[in-house]
Write a structure and sequence with these properties.
The chain is of the alpha/beta class. It has one domain: Ribonuclease Z/Hydroxyacylglutathione hydrolase-like (Metallo-beta-lactamase, Chain A, 4-Layer Sandwich). Helices cover 35% and strands 24% of the residues. The chain contains ten helices and 14 strands. The strands form three sheets. Strands 1-2-3-4-5-6 form a six-stranded mixed β-sheet, covered by helices on one side. The chain has a six-stranded mixed β-sheet with strand order 7-8-9-10-13-14. It is globular, with a radius of gyration of 18 Å. It starts with a strand and ends with a helix. Bound molecules: zinc ion and fe (iii) ion (FE).
């Protein structure tokens, strides 16, 4: 049975994610921007946190980890490479390592770019990927530590996943990301439909996440860097996918 997944709005525009295995009762919390809303959401579902999975060291993803761990006894898991700048870890993981939530097994992906130690968690049987500030809804994280080449290689891993994989990212940045996407891809009908759907969700105070990889591939300009026709339409026909990605990322930084 797939993990049951729920978004928990935190701070101004962050999401923590709950992933619950009904068969065993195991529940993972992916990132802890603050503990209180997560503790309330767990109680509302009747779930008990057994694992905390950290994606990267930024404060808006870890500030509540120690409080939540103390309140629940959950096992804290994060990147070995970032152990020196994460809350104390019970388990330190690297790319390719497995993480088990009840009956479901996930795989750790190294996704450097936003930070060098950023990891993502892919649960293939549940068709879910927890991507935080690597792949975001219609966008991707800013390059604070890594290079554009690193981020492109990180995003390319998601392109390998089945198109029904649900992308669970760390922020509600979708409307702003769509505004940028429309500036470089104004004739994309799927993107225009997405803009209307996302606005309707936000007007109803609903999250725009999670979102399928299929929708990301059709509308996320950073992933569309892989499409030669899109590159040609942007006048970037001479560049490869990584080069076009770097160009688009720098355009977004100045948008
Ligand atoms: Zn971050
Ligand atoms: Fe963040």
């Amino acid at each position: 049975m797939p993990l049951e997944i729920a978004a928990v709005p935190c701070l101004a525009d962050n999401y923590a994610w709950l992933a619950h295995d009904a068969a065993t009762g195991a529940t993972a919390v992916i990132d802890v921007p603050e503990a209180a809303p997560i503790i309330r959401a767990l109680a509302a579902h009747g779930w008990h946190a057994s694992h905390i999975l950290i994606t990267h060291h930024h404060d808006d993803h870890i500030a509540g980890v120690e409080t939540l761990a103390a309140a629940t006894g959950a096992r804290v898991i994060g990147a070995a490479a970032d152990a020196h700048r994460l809350p104390p870890l019970d388990e330190a993981l690297s790319a390719g390592d497995q993480v088990r939530i009840g009956m479901d097994g996930g795989r750790v992906l190294a996704v450097p770019g936003h930070t060098l130690g950023h990891i993502a968690y892919h649960f293939p049987d549940s068709r879910a990927a927890f991507t935080a500030d690597s792949l975001m809804a219609c966008g991707c994280g800013r390059l604070f530590e890594g290079t554009a080449g690193q981020m492109w290689a990180s995003l390319a891993q998601f392109l390998e996943m089945p198109s029904d994989t649900l992308i669970c990212s760390g922020h509600e940045y979708t409307l702003a990301n769509i505004r940028f996407a429309l500036s470089v891809d104004p004739d994309n009908e799927a993107l225009k439909r997405r803009a209307a759907a996302a606005k309707a969700l936000r007007d109803a105070a609903q999250p725009t996440l999670p979102v399928t990889m299929a929708e990301e591939i059709a509308t996320n300009p950073f992933l569309r860097a892989a499409d030669p026709a899109f590159r040609a339409a942007l006048g970037l026909g001479a560049l490869d996918a990584a080069g076009a990605f770097a160009h688009l990322r720098s355009l977004k930084d100045r948008f």
